[in-house]
Amino acid sequence: MTTKPRVLQIGPLAGSPSAQERLQASYTPLELWKQEDKAAFIAREAQDVRVVVTTASFGCPADVINALPKLEAICSWGVGYDSIDVEAAHARKVLVSNTPDVLTDCVADLAWGLMLGVSRRIAQGDRYVREGSWGQVHGAFPLGVRVSGKKLGIVGLGRIGEAIARRGTGFDMDVRYHSRRQRNDTDYGYEASLESLAAWADYLVIATVGGPSTRHLINAPVLDALGPQGIIVNIARGSVIDEAAMVEALSSGKLGGAGLDVFEHEPKVPDALKKMDSVVLLPHVGSATLETREAMAGMLFDNLASFFADGKVITPV
Ligand code: NAP
């Protein structure tokens, strides 16, 4: 009987229905999140471990990486790796893999859901019908704003940003983007300054990476430039927007609306936002469809199998 390779698992694979069972079927996961004294557990049980299994939410900090002398690979479920100390991993020649591409379409779809949801007051209308206000209150349900034909500004024209942009063409939108570098393989207009993109756009959709390099990239001056008719949508990471500045801009009417799948201190959401009809709030579900979550699990297991077969991962970071 062959023994199943032992892997250190940072957090549960709760987002894909079958992923935890599949992990247990082929590997022996050491379940770090269940341990009270994590450092003692690693020192006692994980000194021979070659692979860490984690997710974009649980990540892997430098102290865990450096407490594993035999570590060779960190395989993560999710595309964002801002919660993994990639620098510490690479300093020790530890491979890091993620699950890109397979979630791109569903995250882009959700960004569009948020744009439409805020503009056409879809969640607000649903609340209005459910609470029995239709036909009961004076005046009509408030008007929304037109989406088709408007100006769409994308911050970060990567895999997801580009998929959001492509959908914009179907809505007859004019699309421009900002990232650190202009791409020479696309015809979308480039704005070298984030503020000038915000000043031009009706919708500013955030699709950059998270982490320290983009923290509070969207600050009060950018929100001011987007203006009272402007709508911001964030499917990237909560840290990219200065959340306090955004709440202030929405409260004072300096910003028109917001569609948010991600927040600065998840799962905490500012109470002020929960009282506003100009925002739509979601619990970080960009990739949360059955098909995509299964595909992400498949890619995680392909990376694990590849590493244990020949020491390589398929989708390195
Ligand atoms: P990607 O292909 O690597 O694209 C990231 C883009 O961000 C690139 O175009 C990059 O362009 C740009 N960028 C990086 N730093 C920037 C900066 N300082 N200013 C402006 N642009 C910057 O990644 P992806 O697959 O599209 O995923 C994007 C992010 O979406 C992930 O990192 C993750 O955080 C988030 N995400 C969220 C969910 C969800 O459930 N809501 C699900 C999946 C992913 P340059 O390098 O040229 O600047």
From TrEMBL:
GO terms for molecular function: glyoxylate reductase (NADPH) activity; hydroxypyruvate reductase [NAD(P)H] activity; NAD binding; phosphoglycerate dehydrogenase activity. CDD domains: HPPR. Residues 16-317 form the D-isomer specific 2-hydroxyacid dehydrogenase catalytic domain. Coiled coil: none annotated. Keywords: NAD, NADP, Oxidoreductase. The keyword NAD applies. SUPFAM superfamilies: Formate/glycerate dehydrogenase catalytic domain-like, NAD(P)-binding Rossmann-fold domains. Its EC number is 1.1.1.95. It comes from the Bacteria. Residues 113-286 form the D-isomer specific 2-hydroxyacid dehydrogenase NAD-binding domain. One of its GO terms (cellular component) is cytosol. Belongs to the D-isomer specific 2-hydroxyacid dehydrogenase family. This is D-3-phosphoglycerate dehydrogenase. It comes from Orrella dioscoreae.
